[in-house]
Design a protein that fits this description.
This protein has two domains: 2-97 and 290-308, Rossmann fold (3-Layer(aba) Sandwich); 99-281, NAD(P)-binding Rossmann-like Domain (Rossmann fold, 3-Layer(aba) Sandwich). The two termini are 20 Å apart. The chain has twelve helices and twelve strands. The strands form two sheets. It has a seven-stranded parallel sheet with strand order 8-7-6-9-10-11-12, with helices on both faces. It is of the alpha/beta class. Helix 11 links the parallel strand 10 and strand 11 (254-259). It is globular.
């Protein structure tokens, strides 16, 4: 099988191996592919492995040999699945690979808001502690989480991982999900969305991006929240109306926000959150520990192998 990887760098910047794919066919790996080169680079390949390069209807029509598209991610909206399905092309994704990493990162974002570890490390190395008249100092209010309420919107595997970590910090955990489950009830109390907005000291987003969840954090829902609420999002950027959140941060209604995702990535210079008060933004790295990327690679290989054997798994078309 002729295999092409269109944008392999973020999955494997050099610390992993493509060798298992080589056992399945002839593979060409590109670190990045500009959209105008997509059709040419696919050429006569039968299997396309892709992360964020769009595979449009026109691309599918132009590349007659494609039989398989493997997405190196959970989200697969970069592929025109309707066009792929009409051509009989199998599209697969990676549904579960970074649960622990993403849950861990959500807690890391929260702890950075609470303690500003990076800032105070820099302050010490700039000489401020050594010159300080007191034996300690801090530049921001420090926050103890014990006894505070974490509200999690979307309580699947990742949400539950975050919830377990929060309980270990002696937080109260409440959750909202369209499909409550016994595993979730062991960790949190399920509540309505409005109740979650009203009761939570911290709100974490772990829900998929659907029409019903797009813009779920907006000026109207923020108005229902406690003054001084903290908002975390390392799920999907468009869950947040960014101007509304920026306004709430600047007014003090929202004390702080920490985001690993934004509406358009890479972030644009005019994103209002770049200038908002008390807003931490990281470059979509929750998924990126080597351990989770290795799992992603292993599953991607397994997906293609299963397809070749006529037993396709993790299919979205």
């Amino acid at each position: 099988m002729n295999i092409v990887v269109l944008d392999g760098y973020t999955e494997n910047p050099g610390d992993l191996s493509w060798d298992e794919f080589k056992k399945l066919g002839e593979i060409t790996v590109y670190d990045r592919t500009p959209s105008e080169k997509t059709i040419g680079r696919i050429g006569d390949a039968e299997a396309v492995i892709v992360n964020k390069v769009p595979i449009s209807k026109d691309t599918i029509a132009a590349c007659k040999n494609i039989k398989y598209i493997g997405v190196l991610a959970t989200g697969y909206n970069i592929v025109d699945c309707e066009a792929a399905g009409a051509r009989g092309i199998t599209v697969t994704n990676i549904p579960t690979y970074g649960t622990d990493a993403v849950g861990q990162f959500a807690i890391a974002l929260l702890l950075e808001i609470c303690h500003h570890v990076g800032h105070h490390d820099r302050a010490v190395k700039e000489g401020r502690w050594g010159k300080n008249p007191d034996w300690c100092f801090w530049d921001f209010p420090l926050i103890e989480l014990a006894g505070k309420t974490l509200g999690i919107i979307g309580f699947g595997r990742i949400g539950q991982t975050t919830g377990r970590a929060a309980k270990a910090l002696n937080m109260r955990v409440i959750a909202h999900d369209s499909q409550p489950a016994d595993a979730g009830r062991a960790i949190a109390d399920y509540v309505s969305l409005d109740e979650l907005f009203v009761r939570s000291d911290v709100i974490a987003l772990h829900c998929p991006l659907f029409p019903s969840t797009q813009g779920i954090i907006n000026k109207h829902t923020i108005a229902k929240m406690k003054d001084g609420v903290i908002i975390l999002n390392n799920s999907r950027g468009p869950l947040v109306v960014e101007q509304d959140l920026a306004d709430a941060l600047n007014s003090g209604k929202v004390y702080a926000a920490a985001l690993d995702v934004v509406s358009s990535e890479p972030i644009k210079d005019d994103n209002p959150l770049l200038q908002a008060k008390n807003c931490i933004i990281t470059p979509h790295i929750s998924w990126a520990p080597k351990e989770s990327r290795q799992r992603l690679m292993d599953i991607a290989v397994s997906n293609l192998r299963a397809f070749i054997e006529g037993k396709a798994v993790n299919t979205v078309t």
